[in-house]
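Now for one record.
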Amino acid sequence: MQQGPAQYPAAPTPPPVPPPVRRGGTGRTVGITVAATLAAYVAVAGAAGTVFALTGSGTAAPEPEFDELPGDPCAAATGAELGALSAALPGQGYYDGGMRCNWVAEFSDGTVGRLTVSFQLPHDDDYEAVVDEEEAEREYDEEAEDLLGEAEYQWRDVIESDELDGLGDEALVSHYVVGSGEEPRSQADVLVRVGTVLIEVSAGEAYGSATGEADFVDDEELLIAVAERAVTMLEERE
């Protein structure tokens, strides 16, 4: 009997490639720089002794060492807020008495940089994390002097800053340029103290491509909104 050619099942059709994340009106593709930005950020943080655990969406966060800290720092930003910044590739960092989450994001002026949310307990003289409100107040005051441009030895060039009412126990917002030489970096920070915990929400230029000329003023309300949710996360944990 003559047999016809062997029959093989058809190869499965590959799934469609998702389009790149874009912000409406700019046509800028955030995905081009995300890997380099996160790699540079992790390298800098690692040099400072921070141990990072980069995770993708859907990966469970480890339980925090201290009850005062939230379970997942990335939950401080809502989907709508992340969408407004085309934020992508969240990276979670855990270290002694603290945690942070950062995303690659595109800000209102077109700057591609990073959005960061951090929760930190204060440290004692041996740099051990402690649950101590007086120490938290002291560390907040020291940081606030720099961010408000009131420190005797200023290492930031503060452009605009203000204290915020009704957010945590004390709070402020600051826009500044840090660094010198060929790569000064623009940054905006919202700093909040809630009891023994310091919260910081920041927008900053990407390492390796900073100009010192980015403008995050139009993103200030969004940064404050993320800080408000971070405060709520701490209050719900009490």
Summary: Confidence is low (pLDDT under 50) at residues 1-59.
